Amino acid sequence: MLELRPNCECCDKDLPPEATNAMICTFECTFCADCAETELAGVCPNCGGNFAPRPIRPAAMVKKYPASTKRVLKAEGCGPRKAA
Asked: Do 72 and 9 meet the contact criterion of CB atoms below 8 Å apart?
């Protein structure tokens, strides 16, 4: 089950479970659409994967299966993934 992380890892913008601008990669790294497009050019800085819109969990299911409250923020800043 998706964690539904509460914020953008880049700018720390709130992304509640019903947010339509939340983007995730296959590892659930979570970014707002603005950062995913402008800062990251569609590439996850953590894994190098692409982003997809995060599904919206229906409100009744959020009550039964709550979203995560753990905020994740990239302390080193947010930018395109560096080549190894």
From this structure: yes
pLDDT, tens digit, for every residue of 46-72?
A: 999 999 999 999 999 999 999 999 999
Please enumerate, as own/partner, the contacts of 9-15 that have beta carbons within 8 Å and a separation of 24 or more. Answer: 9/46, 9/72, 9/73, 9/74, 9/78, 10/35, 10/39, 10/40, 10/74, 10/78, 11/35, 11/78, 12/71, 12/73, 15/54
Residue 82 has pLDDT above 60, yes or no: no
Domains of the chain (ranges plus CATH)?
A: 1-65 (3.30.40)
